[in-house]
Amino acid sequence: MGDTWSGSYMIYAKHRAGPPPGAFEAVRLVTPNISGRMDNLRAAILRPQLRRLDSQCQAWNDRYHVVDRALGQVAGLTRVKRPQQEKFVATSYQFLLLDWSGDAIRDMVARCLARGVELKWFGAVEPVGFTSRYDSWTYAPSSPMPSSDRVLHSIIDMRLPLTFSLEDCVMVARIIGEEVTLAFAASG
Q: Which residues contact 29 (CB under 8 A, 6 or more apart)?
């Protein structure tokens, strides 16, 4: 089982070796993504990294806060309000485009990508990469959940790698803000 359950089948088009794409198509919606794998090599590499864990967590959160502040006044974009007492490690940033049409969201995501900012949209009907909704998990039948569906339709996610400087985060947030503002103004 091992790597078969790790979710790598969701980005099979990026793999250079492996079975033909049809093999992945057959399992991608019926196999749960359990991204938990640890072997001896990964464990050995992890041990020295634990010494830097606190500073790495702070660096991720610094990037998160830069993006969050920069997107604070963007019309049409809903930021996730985090409780003051919450302790988190923000390896990614999420925001909502509540009640936007699928076409408007797809267009905004495409325009950001054209400017070098890759965003993931969780509201697409078909899973893309590691985005998915409960109703695409054919291995776990469900009933519609309108309130959850509204939120899922609107979630946008962006990774915050530590290779981004704080200045990079300002620029990325500026691009997102400009594209959301453009799209929101066009829809209103």
A: 127, 136, 137, 138, 139
**For residue 125, what is the DSSP state?**
S
Q: Which of 99, 92, 97, 93 is nearest to 108 (CA)?
A: 97
pTM as predicted: 0.78
- From 31, 27, 30, 29, select the one nearest 124 (Cα to Cα): 29
The three-state (H, E, C) secondary structure of 140-162, written as one string: CCCCCCHHHHHHHHHEEEEECCC
Could you tell me the sign of the dihedral formed by the alpha carbons of 18, 19, 21, 23, in that order? negative
> What is the DSSP code (8-state) at residue 34?
-
Model pLDDT for residues 129-163, shown as the tens digit of each residue = 666 677 777 777 888 888 988 998 999 999 999 99
Domains and CATH numbers, the chain: 1-37 (no CATH), 52-187 (3.90.1150.10)
> Per residue in 5-15, pLDDT tens?
554 545 666 66
- For residue 69, give Cα distances in angstroms to 66, 103, 174: 5, 27, 11
Place of tokens 């990079």: 168
